[in-house]
Write a structure and sequence with these properties.
With about 60 residues, the chain is mostly helical. The protein is built from 2 helices and no strands. Keywords: Membrane, Transmembrane, Transmembrane helix.
């Protein structure tokens, strides 16, 4: 999830602007989340396709 569309319940401003301590804390937490959690579904499909192609190439070379 990205924080650019989230609205802070504390100050009613976008979390991405970081106007209050609650916004800043949540912005930091969201920025530090796992790398794969921030990828779009299309990027995950592309990554999976590349991995499958690499495994197939290695299997073909070993045979």
């Amino acid at each position: 999830m990205t924080y650019d569309r989230l609205v802070c319940a504390n100050c009613a401003a976008p979390v991405s602007e970081g106007r209050c301590p609650v916004c800043r804390a949540n912005r930091e937490r969201l920025q530090q989340e796992n790398f794969l959690a921030n990828l779009s579904p299309l990027a995950l499909i592309a990554l999976l396709t590349v991995l499958v192609a690499a495994v197939a190439l290695l299997a073909h070379q070993a045979a």
